[in-house]
Amino acid sequence: MSIALTRLGYEPGTRLLVVHADDVGMCHATLPAIRDLFSVGLVTCAATMVPCPWFPAVAQYCREHPEADMGVHLTLNCEWSTYRWRPVSTADPASGLLDEEGYMPQSPARIQADASQDAVAHELSGQLGRALAAGIDVTHLDSHMGTVFHPRFAQAYIDLALDNEIPPFLASQTPEWIRSNPGFDVDLMLKVYEDAITAGVIPFDNLTMLPLDDPEDRVEQAKRAIADLPEGLSLMIIHPAIATPELETIAPDWQARVADYEAFTSDELASFVEAEGVQLIGYRQIREALRKHKQAATE
């Protein structure tokens, strides 16, 4: 039996799906996209990148739409070559959070090798704090390009989430992924994972992301992924944006991002999801389950 189904109060055999829009606020093209997607209803939640230039506009949208299911896409690196951003907590090169030009490094591996653990913990806390102070009812935490899912940073990520009673992204496949990384302290990472589950974190049973290198037939790609969903709680990650000159200049994968937007605003895909009997939920429901678990543990 799925841990998620049990803790969320669903019957065995239920197929739950969270459709998650990543990278909101990375550039302006993500803003009209998420407004439209939330209106349609197939996308159930999203996460914003606090260090990015369009974060203030995301915060304004969330203040005007308090029902928006918005998390924080914790960001420690900037992968683009001509469009960059900086940490919110420091300008000190000794932190390991900046490259030679004063921006976040492009490579997650560089952050994982060089960044101070204290500096990373401070940066993660700063990003969440800035989102909360801006009026966002933060529903969850996850990680841009998976940078925090490393033995040096994972505990700070989990602690930040649990201290604020906000669910962090974890997947039931995490133990297998940990064991497949020979450079990891496997025992340490497994303890972090197991302690998080004990503390009330609900792991996803299945994870899928529509590829950023194959924008063709996006509706059909999404249909196949949804048809193949197993029972339990699944997360589907997309990267939606509208087509703009800015996006095309920034992102070589812009066509896939636009394809995500177009697919998940289509009536065809909405009808398919309904016919499949998949139940869509957001992170706010998962957050409520975490908070109930923590409350029960203290009674």
What does this structure look like?
Its cofactor is Mg(2+). The chain contains 13 helices and 7 strands. The chain has 299 residues and is an alpha/beta fold. Helix 9 runs parallel beside helix 12 (267-276).
Give a quick set of tags describing it.
about 300 residues, alpha/beta, TIM Barrel, seven-stranded parallel sheet, 13 helices, 7 strands, Glyco_hydro/deAcase_b/a-brl, magnesium
Short description:
This protein is α/β, with parallel strands linked by helices and 299 residues long. The protein has 13 helices and 7 strands. It has one domain: TIM Barrel.
CATH topology: TIM Barrel
Total DSSP E strands: 7
Give the class-level CATH name: Alpha Beta
Q: Give a short account of the largest sheet.
A: 7 strands, parallel
List the total number of helices. 13
Mean pLDDT: 95
Secondary-structure-based class equals alpha/beta
Order of helices and strands: HEHEHEHHEHHHEHEHHHEH
Instruction: Give the helix level as a range of percent.
Output: 40-55%
Percent strand equals 5-15%
Per CATH, which architecture? Answer: Alpha-Beta Barrel
* Rg (CA only): 18 Å
In total, the number of domains comes to 1
The rounded distance between the terminal residues' Cα atoms is 26 Å
Protein name: YdjC family protein
Pfam families: YdjC
GO molecular function: deacetylase activity; hydrolase activity; metal ion binding
InterPro entries: Glyco_hydro/deAcase_b/a-brl, YdjC-like
